[in-house]
Amino acid sequence: MKKILLTGSTGFIGSAILNELSKNYEICCLNRKHVKQSKNYKNIYFKSYDDLNFKLRKIQADTVIHCATHYVKNHEINDINKLSNSNILFGNIILENLSKMKVKNFINFSTVWENYDGIKDNYFNLYSVYKKNFSNLLKYYEKNLPNINFYNLFISDTFGETDKRVKIINVLKKNYKKNLTTNIISSKLYLNLLNIKDIINSLSVVFKNKPGHYNLVNNKSYSISQIISAVNKKNNQKIKVKWLSNQTIKERIFENKKLIGWKPKNSTIDDIVDVIKN
Question: Under a CB-based contact definition with an 8 Å cutoff, are residues 194 and 268 in contact?
Fold first, then answer.
């Protein structure tokens, strides 16, 4: 990677990638809204998709890292426009301009929920349907742009110190600090959690692998009761929990290829505990 075009730079994954890679690479970020400029990277604002198409023609980058997404777990009718625009149209315009930008590598982040519970094309929600359709778009451009390397990286749930999303680890962290009780669906809920640090580390080895579809997931899933017990062992203050059931909830993960030279090193139960405590 020399010059990088990054999307989704204000989101959890994109901002972490930006903060790390901007130390060594020239990065250009696409944003729908005006954001604070930085000496470490360039922000390009676009006011419409026509404007985006026009501005992309003036950009040159050898690598695109596509993190932009709009996530809704349970959609309503008012979500459809954003889901479609963010997860399909925005990325499609970028794909259409890859040759003009002289791009050599395209890295996309998708979700294991495209193949929920390890079953191919078993969609968890509407969001995962849109992500699957974008994966299909990638296949089209792979075929028609053979000189560009396409990497589609499937990730499970993520966590990290800077994460502000309403996710179970963050809810536990917030309620732990306030000494509040957290309602959890089951004591036997298993989570496959990947530290954002490990996602960033994957980018240092991705090009040692052939273009294709790869899983970025933890080697081990932890039950939420294991995580809470580990926190409680290290602290006088205990996490307060109300278990709603003891039903086993453990998602299988569809087996895409694994990146050669990569394995999660920062996603142990101790790493999860440290994020909750800090």
Answer: no
